[in-house]
Amino acid sequence: MNNKVILPLASQINIAISDKQISFLLDKLQKISYLEGKIENQGLDIAPNVLAISLLEREGIDSSIIEGTQTNHEEMYYDISEGINDKYSWEVRNLINLYKSSFRDFNDEIMDFTIEDLQALHRDLYKRDIDNFETTYDPIEVIKSVKPGKIIVNDSKPNWIGPVGKGIEQASLILLKPSQKKKYLEDLFELVRSNKGVKSLSTVIIFHPIFESIHPFADGNGRIGRLMLVNLFKYLKLTNYNWIFISDFWKNNKEEYIRELRKVQTTNSWNDWICFFVKSLSETVDMVYNKLNSILDLFIGYSRNNLSQAEKLLLKHFFKYPILNKAKTIAYLKEKNGIANATAYRAFDKITNLLNVSNDGNVYRFKKMIDILSS
C-alpha cells in the first residue's frame, strides 16, 4: 500500500462535487445564516460572537485533543479560569487565543491567506507567554525544537508521520518534499484568494488534505490547519461568522477522519473524502445550530430579569466562561469596568444565585452552560 503523498498542486485538482451535494451544503450553511439573524434580531445587549465564545474555546480544546492533548472540556475550562499553565493548558490556551483573534468582535483584522500570515499564526501558537500564570512548566525547550514560524525547506530531512522514536521506514505517511512546500502553499493560498462565494465550496473541500500534505512546520500543523479551515468559510463569504467548529466531529470520528485523509493524500481519489467532508460539515452545522440555539434561549431567559449594569456584565461573563474564578472576576469588574468593590460583590452574589451556580472555594461552575457544551 502506498504511503507517500501524491497530490498535485491545488490549482490542478478538479473534484467532482455533484449539484445535489452543493445544494445540500448550501442549505446547511443557510442554517448558520438563520441563526445569525435570530441572534441579531433579538436586540440583546451581547454580540453574536460573544454568545459563541464558549463554543470557540471548545473547538480549540477538541482540535488539541485530536493531536493527543490529554484533557477534556471541563478540565481545560478550569485550567483556563485558574491560570494553570502545564504543557497541555499552555498549548490549548495559545490555540484558543488564535481562534479569538480571528473573531471580528475581538480583533478588526481578518485572517489573510498568505505565507507570512501563516508563519505569524504558527509563532503565536508557540508563544511563551507564561508570566501571568501559575506555572511549574516552561515551554522553552519545546519552542526551541519546533522553531515557530520556520517552514521546513531542507530536503536532507524528509517530512513524515509515524511512531515517535522510529525511522522513516516505519512512517505511516511520507509527506511532500520540503523543497515543494512553499510552492504548494503559494498555490493553495492563491486559489483561496481568487475564489469567493458558492464556487469556493470546492476550495473548502480540498483545503485540509492539501495543507496537511504540505505539513509546513515541525509541529502544530493539524491545529493550524483546522484553525485556517474554520476561518476559510468566513473568508470565502460562505458565512458571516467563524462558527464552523468542525473539530468536534473529527475528534469523535478520529479513526474515520484519519483514514479518509490518508486515502485521499495517497491516491488523489477524492470521492470518499468529498462524502466524508459533506457529512462532517452537515453534522458540524447541526451541532453548532443546536448548541447556539440552546445558549441563546438560556441567555434570553436570564436577560428578562431587571439587572444592573454590573449584573449584565457578569451575566455575559458567565456565558463566555462557564467556569470562572471569583477573585479574578471581581477584579475584572473593578479594573476593566470601573465598578465599585461593594457593587461588584453584590452583583456577583445576585448573578450566581440567579444562575444557580455551584462553587468549590473560589471556582464557580455554571452547570447549565457546561451541560450544553459537554453534550
From TrEMBL:
Domain of life: Bacteria
Gene3D superfamilies tied to this protein: Fido-like domain
Pfam families for this protein: Fic (PF02661)
Coiled coil: none
Limits of the Fido domain: 113-279
Protein name (record): Fido domain-containing protein
